[in-house]
Amino acid sequence: MSNSIRISIIVLTYKKFDNLQKNIKSIISQNYTDYEVIVSDDGSPDLNADFIYSLFPGNRTDERFHLITRAENIGTVKNYNEAVKAAHGDIIVPLSQDDCFYNENVLNVIAKAFDDSETNICLGLRKTLDKNEYLPNRYQSDLISEGNSKKIWFRNACKNMCYGACLYWRRDFLLDMGLFDEDYRLLEDYPMIMKCIENGEHIKVISTPTIIWDYKGLSGIPKKTGPLADDQ
Asked: Which of 4, 28, 157, 187 could disulfide-pair with 231, CB 3.0 to 4.6 Å?
C-alpha cells in the first residue's frame, strides 16, 4: 500500500513524563512514514521542552514533530480539540503518553483501514499492559462490526467498549461533528462516540492490536473504570 494517507499522531501530556520515551520510540519505529506527531502539553509545571525534543529524530529540525505548550491547564477535551485543529493529517491517531504502539506496523494497519472513503471511525484493539488480555473482546468486536446502532448504543451505555485510546478518526469528520464536547473537561471519547452511534455512524473494528495500554492516566494516577468516572 502506498503512503497516500497523512496521519496525525496526537500525544496529550500532563505531568509525569516517565513513559514518554517509550511512547515516542514506538512512533519513530513505525514502517509507515507519512505522519506527523503533535505533542500537546496541558500546562505541566515541570515541562522540559528540551527533553521532549531530544526524543525526536533531528531534535528540533524535523518538521514532522511539533510541541504545543500552554501557560495554564485547560483540560483534556480542549487540549485534544486544539491539537486536532493544529493537525495537518487526514487521520487523527491519539496515543496516550503512557501507552505505546503494539508493533512497528500499526500505522500501516490504520491507514489501510481508512482506505475506504466511507469509513470515518476505526477502533483498534488494546493489549492490557502485563496481561494477556485484548479489548474489546471478541463478543464486543462482533457486536460493533454487526452495525446495529440500537444494540451497540445500549451495550456501550452499560460498559464502554469503544475506548478512546484506540479510536481513530477522519479529521474532516471530527471537524464536521464540531469536535469533542467542551462541556466536559476530561472526558472526550465517550460522549462523542455515543453521539456517533446515535447518528448511525459505522465503526470499523481493526482486528489486530494497535496499542499496549497502561493503567495510569495522564498524570500517573490509575485510570478509573467507569466511562463517566473522570467527570464524576
From this structure: 187
- pLDDT by residue (tens digit) across 137-146? 999 999 999 9
Q: Distances from the Cα of 117 to the Cαs of 17, 40, 91, 95, 121, in angstroms?
A: 37, 28, 12, 23, 11
Length of the chain: 232
Closest CA to 125 of 113, 137, 116: 137
CB distance 32 to 111 below 8 Å:
yes
Identify the bridge partners of residue 209 per DSSP, sorted by sequence position.
125
Say which amino acid occupies 176: D
DSSP 3-state of 106: helix
Amino acid at 30: Q
Q: Which of 223, 184, 218 is nearest to 77 (CA)?
A: 184
Dist. CA 144–CA 147, nearest whole Å: 6
0.85 exceeded by pTM: yes
* Cell output for 96: 496516550
Long-range contacts at 63-72 (CB < 8 A, ≥ 24 apart): 64/35, 64/36, 64/37, 65/36, 65/37, 65/39, 66/36, 66/37, 66/38, 66/39, 67/39, 67/41, 68/38, 68/39, 68/40, 68/41, 69/41, 69/43, 70/41, 70/42, 70/43, 71/43, 72/43
Handedness of CA 31, 134, 113, 156 (dihedral sign): negative
Residues pairing with 93 in the sheet: 9
Number of other CB atoms surrounding residue 122 within 10 Å: 23
